[in-house]
């Protein structure tokens, strides 16, 4: 019996977690698609009006759909916990917490029916996070893999860039808090930094605006900085993508002349010859 249970756990593990197998990749894609469809159902339900909300007064279509979605997510979660070598590790992992959170709304409404529907709808919409599982499949898609590798290669430059932008936002926010003050809407340092972020991204909501000449000068400088730096992340990623594509083109097999191999590949994916 123990051997049978161990064999079942092993097969379930490869189906639910092993993306190196076609069945594992198909199942992961199916889970992401199902999560996306469940979010679409939530928006359709919300758009039809409050009389169709999940109040459980009547067992209408959306109640059955939510019940079906919750049961499927619950079964998937239990199977993942069952087949993981150390269930405790999975339960407290990032994806384990996300998987658990996506199955709780229905049970919470059954236990506490007085809870606000707005909170439950927002909670249910968080199932969109499960779609991010599809990112784990990027390494099996050549074009998307190059894009992902470019982001990974540029991560240090991007971290430095966004850290610099964060420092600039704090400095300009503090300046505007000092110059304008609560009289013109800059009531707190947080509000001033919020204004700086909105300004540097050239969004300009207009809910907070400078009124003094010095404040307008600082705002103008921040707008110019925004136009100057807005293209930097795109340029960094584009540069690394070009480098990745060039590396793939240079990796050519000496036996069959097959090109387009990954930079880390050791053997030709067409004839198996060792790459130079």
UniProtKB/TrEMBL annotation:
It is a multi-pass membrane protein. Keywords: Ion channel, Ion transport, Membrane, Potassium, Potassium channel, Potassium transport, Transmembrane, Transmembrane helix, Transport, Voltage-gated channel. The keyword Thylakoid does not apply. Its main location: membrane. InterPro entries: Ion_trans_dom, VG_K_chnl, Volt_channel_dom_sf. This is Ion transporter. Residues 26-246 form the Ion transport domain. The chain crosses the membrane at residues 30-49, 61-79, 91-112, 159-179, 185-205, 217-237. Pfam families: Ion_trans (PF00520). The keyword Ion transport applies. It comes from Pseudenterobacter timonensis. It is found in: Membrane. It comes from the Bacteria.
